[in-house]
DNA sequence: GCATGATTGGAATGTCAATTCCAACTTGGG
DNA sequence: CCCAAGTTGGAATTGACATTCCAATCATGC
């Protein structure tokens, strides 16, 4: 879980069972729409119609559109990471890395390569225009990169990966390859670029194997 | 150069000297604004004010906002590629690749890592919502990837790169690393991720060197 | 020098978005 | 059962934006 907005504590409102469900429905609907049309391209009336709620409800639960966007970022981060588990927590072999990346490629194919990365697309759109969104996105990428780095670190601790390998840098490089590969795939409507990008980085990691 | 809009030919309007300059100023101003705020986040009135032109002028030269966006994509492609030459046309050694990528990293630092890639940001925003924009973006990335692939192919032809190396895939991987690295750098406000990403891929290319 | 088309200014139009307001309704705890 | 707080509907407000229009001005080939 993550913080709903920013500094809470004093004015935490209590939620009814129905209220919680409404709130969730709004977030999920908004996330879906924003994934396809971007945050700026998704209007409150759009969300109202798709989620079957009134404007009051959205403003009641999120304050304003920016609040909803922040909630969507956190939701997408939670959802995407959850979807990648348990693989994400066991990236401590070359095979595991390949399998994990391959699944993302298959998901991309399954949707016809429309849409890029759920988090990356929001990042590209919001990084420069919304300071609090950027903060959430930093956290999102950190939460994503962390497990990759941990997996590589475990391989290194076990002596499978050369001590000269910079596991943190390799994890960053793999995440970057995923992001860039997804973008190229989205534009080209083919997962090939994604697969080539991640494959190159994993090959590189493999070259650090001991023996 | 690139096509102004789409299927021209019959109704090519002639441009006065002043008209050409006005048109250019609009494109450059729009490109600058859209780089910082995105295409959707940049309004026609914004561009009017920044370029010192009236609405009539924008609609006279570009028809509608989408026409202007397409012109901006082509302009950014031309401009960015031109800026990378002549290095871009001589990427046939590991050193040249590193130098070329390093310059982009320095430029990113110079602007405080605000803004991502001029083309990649537009790609992320428009790939799914504007079919003709996507077409232009495919061409933009192809024009970018081509010289990389050519450089690698030359290395291979000279026997410096292993025959087993897939130069096309490596070029794609490097472009993806650039895109993903730029995105992470933009979010984190540090070029480190970009440098680690491209470094990993270039190291990987280096591992294909013969001898 | 004139006619024709290029260029420009600036107001007008219609749409739609974000947000606010307030009244009505529901719910849970005491 | 009753009240304070949570929840919802729907209209009203305000502002911005894309686009159109028309009339005026300017440049250039003839």
From TrEMBL, chains A, B:
State one molecular function term (GO). Answer: DNA binding
Task: Tell me the DNA-binding residue spans.
Answer: 43-62
Q: Which domain of life is it from?
A: Bacteria
Which InterPro entries has this protein been placed in?
Answer: Homeodomain-like_sf, HTH_TetR, Tet_transcr_reg_TetR-rel_C_sf, TetR_C
The name of this protein is: TetR family transcriptional regulator
Keywords attached to this entry: DNA-binding, Transcription, Transcription regulation
Q: The organism's lineage?
A: Bacteria, Bacillati, Actinomycetota, Actinomycetes, Kitasatosporales
Is DNA-binding found in the keyword set? yes
Annotated source species = Streptomyces caelestis
């Amino acid at each position: 879980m993550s913080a709903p907005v920013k500094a809470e504590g004093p004015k935490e409102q209590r939620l009814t069972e129905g209220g919680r469900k409404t709130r969730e429905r709004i977030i999920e609907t908004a996330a879906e729409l924003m994934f396809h049309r971007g945050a700026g391209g998704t209007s409150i009336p759009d969300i109202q119609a798709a989620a079957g709620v009134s404007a009051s409800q959205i403003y009641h639960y999120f304050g304003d559109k920016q609040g909803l966007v922040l909630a969507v970022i956190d939701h997408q981060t939670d959802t995407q990471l959850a979807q990648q588990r348990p693989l994400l927590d066991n990236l401590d072999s070359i095979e595991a890395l390949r399998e994990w990346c391959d699944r993302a490629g298959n998901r991309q194919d399954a949707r016809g390569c429309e849409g890029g990365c759920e988090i990356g697309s929001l990042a590209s759109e919001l990084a420069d225009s919304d300071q609090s969104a950027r903060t959430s996105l930093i956290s999102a990428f950190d939460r994503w990169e962390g497990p990759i780095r941990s997996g590589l670190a475990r391989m290194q601790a076990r002596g499978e990966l050369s001590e000269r390998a910079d596991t943190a840098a390799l994890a960053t490089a793999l995440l970057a390859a995923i992001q860039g590969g997804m973008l190229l795939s989205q534009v080209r409507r083919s997962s090939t670029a994604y697969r080539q990008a991640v494959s190159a980085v994993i090959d590189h990691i493999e070259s650090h194997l001991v023996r």
